[in-house]
Amino acid sequence: MVWRSSSKSRPLTSWPDSAEINDTTAGKISTVFPFGMSYKDRWRPEEVQECIAMWGLNREELSKLLELKERVSDRKDHWANGPFELVRFVREHTCYGDVNKMEQRVRQSTDWRAENGLDEVLETFCPRVVVYRFPAAVMQGVDKEGGVVAVLRNGDPLGLIQRFGRDEVIRSLFWGIEFAIRGPWQLDFYQKYHQRPGRVTAVLDLKGLNRRHYHPSLILLAQKLMDPLEENYPHVIKKILVVNAPAIFDFVWGLVKHLVAPHLRLLMEVAKESETQDLLSRYIDLEVLPDYLVPGIGQGKPVRGLNPDWVSELLPPQSDHDSERVPLVYGPKKSASSYYTTTSIGSSCSFEHMKKSYHNPRRVRTVTKPLFKGIWKQGSINTVQIMT
């Protein structure tokens, strides 16, 4: 076992600053963001104008956006059929400005999401507490251009796979991505900065990089995941700041470089530990970042809905609570098949209620659909190694 033993970690119910997602807040979210708006409301003239201003669209891009809207109008019930979502496909470089390619990408993406239950993952899946303490975190502050800041850490993905299995880790990964693109924290962002979240400046902290991070099974798994990540989450990343890069980085980069799309490589800047603060300060006010990353300067905390203490340790110690699961983000769907999921999204967003039911195993329900089968090419899934 690769986990360090120490005293028990605090259970979820003792976290301070827990998100208070009440009925009123849920209602506000549904009137501000596309996953709670009708097709007609998503395409109101003022929404389109806001999208034009936010993304700086020219006439040609606007024309393609509106044409794309008409082409995929048969999917108007899907929350992604809105200007702020379709514009990412318009801007995606792999579409080469071709509306036919844009339409194909949108249809493939919505099919893939439905096939893998991603539209409901925030209402049906609860990550393990220990996984919840590791992942990337969206920070409360913004970069110098007013964009979203996310901090990603090495953690111990191999240890998580050994302990919980590949499927659990993959589902947790996509849970984190979905939380980032449509979690309740976006309401806070909108109210504070008077705009929707756009592209992300990602800070990848490589402190602690070691041979476990480039184990063959992890490289193979990353290879399987890169295509669906790039194809279904277009035009999300603005900058990738790789910091605290150790001497071993050049070797590791040689192993994984081929997995990273050329356009993403162009967005990357790398700094060793002595250069980290200089690189970060070019794009982000250092106070926005967590203290562990810029000691004595950083004051940043994750957005509500994430564990505010997740940055306290590079590797969280093993705990009796590790196998417990965190609450659902939006509460169970009314249409869910389980007999105990009887409330709707709009009326089940009380974090206090979710905390009370945290230790009730009946509240934990995962999607019954095949897990991310759209990721795997035929015959390749069995080649992924899981160490025991």
TrEMBL record:
This is SEC14-like protein 5. One of its GO terms (cellular component) is cytoplasm. Signal peptide: none annotated. InterPro entries: CRAL-TRIO_dom (IPR001251), CRAL-TRIO_dom_sf (IPR036865), SEC14/CRAL-TRIO_domain (IPR051064). Residues 118-293 form the CRAL-TRIO domain. SMART domains: SEC14 (SM00516). Pfam families: CRAL_TRIO. Gene3D superfamilies: CRAL-TRIO lipid binding domain. It comes from the Eukaryota.
